[in-house]
Amino acid sequence: MRTDITLRGSKADQFERIQDRLEDRRGHELSRADVVGALMADFEQDLEDDRGRQRPRP
Known about the structure:
With 58 residues, the protein is mainly α. The protein is built from 2 helices and no strands. The longest helix is centred in the last third of the chain and has 23 residues, at 32-54. The protein starts with 8 loop residues before the first helix and ends with a helix. The mean pLDDT is 92.
């Protein structure tokens, strides 16, 4: 499966800032697909963390 996305204006600027920050943290260049993958992984981790906080503790 393939999904194409076009970002313009401020969203494109924001994406490039995020890409630059991720590259600085990791110490190497990332493809756009790698950046999106990192963002998706962070998002899904946040969802899992939220679910864990909602469970009643024994």
